[in-house]
Amino acid sequence: MLTPSSPSTSPSLAPQELNVNRKRNRSLSMQSVASTSSPKRAASEDPTSDSARSPQSQSHEMSALSLTDANLDHEIESYMANQPEDDLAASPAEEATPATPATPAQKLATVEALCKEPMVVGETWYIVSRKWYRKWQKALSGEVDKEGGVEEKDVGPVDNTDLVDASGNFVSQAIEHVDVEFVPQKVWTMFEEWYGHARQPQPRKVIARGLANEPSLEIHPPRVNVYTLTAFAPPGITVRPREVTISSQDTMIAVYRSFAEEFAKTEVDQRKYRVWKLADGASHNNIRYTPDLLKLHGATLLQPSEKTVGEELIEAGDGFVVEFQGSDQWVVDAAEIPASGSLGTSQETETAAPSQPLFSDGSDFFSSLQLQKRSTSPKQESTSLSSAFSPRRMWSDPDSSAKANAKTVVPGTLGLGNMGNTCFMNSALQCLAHTQELTDYFLMGVFEDELNFDNPLGMHGQIAQAFGALLRRIWAPNSSATSYSPREFKQALQRFAPQFSGYQQHDSQELVAFLLDGLHEDLNRILKKPYIEKPDWEGGDDRDLAKLANESWQGYLRRNDSVIVDLFQGQYQSTLVCPECSKVSITFDPFMYLTLPLPVQKKWSHTIFYVPWDLSKPHVKLPVEIGRDASFRDLRQLLGRWMDAHPDNLLTLEIFNNRFYKDLDDTCLVGEVAENDIIVCFELPCHAQQSRSYKPQPDDPFIVPVSLHDIIPPRQTYGRGSTVFGYPFITVVDQDQARDPDAMYDAVVERLQRWTTNVRDLFTWEAGQSTSTSPKAVQIPLPTPPAVETITEIKENGDVVTVTEGVPEPEEGDIVDEKSIVVRESEDDADMEIVDIEPPRKVGFKKDIFHLRVQSGNTAYGAGYNSLGMASRFDSWESRAQHSVDSESSQPILLRRNDTFICEFDENMKAYYFGEGRGGWEHARWDHWEEFLHPDFVASRKAASQNKNKGISLQDCLDEFTREERLGEDDLWYCPSCKKHQQATKRFDLWKVPDVLVVHLKRFSNSRALRDKIDTFVDFPIEGLDLTEMVGERLVADRLKAQGVDTQELGMSGTDEPLVYDLYAVDEHLGGLGGGHYRAYALNDTDKQWYHFDDSYVTPTRAEAAVNSNAYLLFYRRRAAHPLGGKSHEKTVAARQNPKQVAEPAQGPRMPTPPEEPAASSESGKLLSGVSLPFGGWPTPRSNAQSSPASSPPPLDDGDPPPFEHALDDEVIQSSLAPLMLSGLSGPRFNFPDPPSRDSPTSSIDVEPDTDADIEDILKGVYP
């Protein structure tokens, strides 16, 4: 249930409104057993054995549970059930329900118009299965596809069963227009009125997300477990805890009440109760929670307030215990329950705290946001790092003495708990946390002095602060914690990057990119960016090239200077060459990570049926192989080259069920075609008009599709009872032919010659003249008995034949019956005298072969299953003449664009020219295709076979990255010399490489036609990755040194040292797009041991294990004779030599101890007042802050974090954390701008001030 965002009460919907409100929504990694209504009801009813219990001992317990069983339908009620009335009240526009549409077309138009309306915060929208929605669309539009048509009476109620699992948990990726459709409440009401009660309704609330308060659907709201506190739990009786769905925007007041209503819905206002928040990892399989369990696991009293669920850091899977007071006494004494979690305790009250700077002495980021109350219980004394980032608390022994014997873990081996599909974040954080130079910079506190609060492109220092606090937790030197859930970091992250909100899986690389960019802007030492004009390449030699590169780099550094630039940023060279004037353009741009394509082009293989225009050439089928992302324009260019035809004259169409089904123009990708689809390519004598760049001309010929049919009964249209047969084809009718029906008939018959073996009988023949001046008698010999009649005939086609007929004479029959007549050619009879005549001549095509009819269409080439005859009848030639554009002409044009010819054959003509059909088309040629194997195809297959077992190395990927390629037609470059756009050649080269090189292996492709992952193994070195010969700066420096040039003047320092890198971390992705998991390998600099990080599980491993086919992000550190990091390293050394007074001595070769926090007294343990950070929602296709579809894998299936029973004791006592708050702190207060929503928000270097256009380019990762 969703609860109100601000009111103090939580009114429920009226009972009649609950019929469409079901909560079926859960995160993939927080799944539980059944959540449907009937299993829940059966499993939750109190067993009969409860009756044997003592009433005195059970009075309070049973009063809490008595209403439970009567109200278990809450498990399937909507999570909207407790929304406030003011939110649920419809606006005047909503109350004015539109009149029910009368026709299917009106219904479709009404729904589509309503779905285009913008979302408004507080509205209720519904998720509808795309599968059902498409079926509904087909029924109402009359569309007929390969699966046939659908009638509206067969649509049925909305069916979302494909979006949920067997337990009713929402498991869909929820990609709009792909998996689901989002419809407003009014549309949902219409669907239920028209088609009945829906199956598995999925209502969702529109919430404001991120700093920009973007309205978006909360696709995956948190789902928590709710228990009731009882004096004891009878053995052998187990009732599963309640699973309650809340909203991240619910207030704690509403949540507090809704939890109590789960057990005492009608008595909640008459009874006293309180709610406990269980410690992280605590769980129980029984709805009854006992005081002993509460003491063992630890809990914190939940305080009702106006803060939201998101602000209080409540996540999916958290546990809450409702305690009802009985006989003026609570079930448990609050003083006996150890504190835990990050919520305020009951003893804490919100007061205005004195302002103090962030990361002041004795505090870190989150402790500066709130004060913490420390318990004096011996069990709560911490022997590890005092930090607001408390480790996840685990329990393996209820005896507190176990804590004294807890083993201190190696710093840097802290696992990160999965909070619901957050493995993508955990693996990325582990890799960055094990970047030694970056970690030292943060742990020594250098970043505190470089926080840039005023950078409009940054996050006002909060991402850097949150990351620094997390690093202190990971590298705590004396901690015995084995796992920790980084809730606070996730909270800070999703505030500025709403695309990472919620419980959907995301791309780990995108997180790394965003985090590096965010840290760079938060720590940018440039407070006011100067205007820098980007230099242009004017030509020259190596010296000029080096000057240009250095000038570009120095200009970038004048606007961007941070630890991220010192460690992670390099420079690449982009070269463009005009194919016409050979103009060369060279630019130098920075990069923060290197995205390398894998030289594994997934091929699209298909057989194309090619029909040449020349009738003397056979139609052939030829296998092709082309890149899966290629368009049909690329395919036509390939076919044109192979078949010696102009690509613009080729027409590609899909045939289905004897019709042209799809126009495969330039916008279609070959990857969209299924394996069994029939693709035909027609060569035409003119431009096929299929290219997007083609501009129609007034004298263009008509390209008309031709379809073969049986005779269509009167008053019946094509497609409703008519039988289509054979092979559709294309004819071309010029402007003159389009004025004469006979000429158009002849144009069709001419093309028909290709598809029948009885070609000669398509023509009318005229006998030639006799060569003699006087006729001669024809001698017909009379053979001996039996007597027969013989007749010599001259056929229309000029053949002279003798017909021998027996007695009785055969009855007159049709063309097919003549097959029984014995025909003997006259030349076989030596005794017959042959009449000497000229060869017969073709007079023209026969006019009675078929009846030609024309029909208008709405699509080019008649493409579409139902494009013909479903909406209109045939047009007569007379009607066409009257409505022609030049009807006043004596011979008006009778054709229109998108017309289709229908050839109606009677049974006899069809059988003679094509065959009977039932036993095979014996006279047809559409089943006879010669196979054509082009040499290029043969060579490609041979090369693929040879390379099949050949592995791919990282060097191959680097070579592919630097390979020269030609720009596509949609990505033209404007040549300043030619003054026009050109298809230039483009090449990327590495010019300068950073100290820490992050390599992104581009395994995911997410195009319109294909969403795929490349699982090919890439062999990459653990040690000794040598890039010296690939870096342009080194190569140019060597040549200049040979010429005696001082390279130091050109900014080329340290060029004598080889560029050799060693691997120190790997971020890997297991599985495919349909499900998977992120893990990490990293080298620990403390003990020089490699570790494998699988969320909260950390195990030692070997470096070789990281080299596998799952590797996705590679982290390399450069070997150098001097420390890495430049200016940042110098500041880190200075901080180590002059540590702050509050810092403890380092407990290892490199790990400092963060400042110790003094124990807080009751006065100091008060919450800071102020406005807390808003909680972001989940990205939807209607949001402007989505992760990139081009590189993100779909939601993956992570498992739940390990149960607390399996972990070791944690000696660190968890402190109470107040939510992230801004007010009450020293320093300026900010009006936050809209956070960057794309991958790489890095500074620009050529514009001042930062205009919107500049920022837009920056967010796209483009450096002007």
Automatic annotation (TrEMBL):
- What is the uppermost EC class here? hydrolase
GO biological process annotations for this chain's record? protein deubiquitination; proteolysis
**To which species is this protein native?**
Ceriporiopsis subvermispora (strain B)
Q: Where is the composition biased (Pro residues)?
A: 1191-1204
- EC numbers listed for it are 3.4.19.12
**SMART domains in the record, alphabetically?**
DUSP (SM00695)
Q: Where is the composition biased (Polar residues)?
A: 27-39, 49-64, 371-389
Q: Which GO terms describe its molecular function?
A: cysteine-type deubiquitinase activity
What SUPFAM superfamilies would the database entry show?
A: Cysteine proteinases, DUSP-like
Respond yes or no to whether keyword Transferase is given for this record. no
Q: Where is the signal peptide?
A: none
Query: Can you tell me which family this protein belongs to?
Result: Belongs to the peptidase C19 family.
Q: Which reaction does it catalyse?
A: Thiol-dependent hydrolysis of ester, thioester, amide, peptide and isopeptide bonds formed by the C-terminal Gly of ubiquitin (a 76-residue protein attached to proteins as an intracellular targeting signal)
Q: Give the Acidic residues compositional bias ranges.
A: 1247-1256
Q: Which residues form the DUSP domain?
A: 102-207
Where the record annotates domain USP, the positions are 414-1119
Q: Where is the composition biased (Low complexity)?
A: 1-12
Q: What is this protein called?
A: ubiquitinyl hydrolase 1
Q: Which UniProt keywords apply?
A: Hydrolase, Protease, Thiol protease, Ubl conjugation pathway
Query: Which Pfam families does the annotation name?
Result: DUSP, UCH
Superkingdom field: Eukaryota
Q: Where is this region: Disordered?
A: 1-64, 371-403, 1126-1264
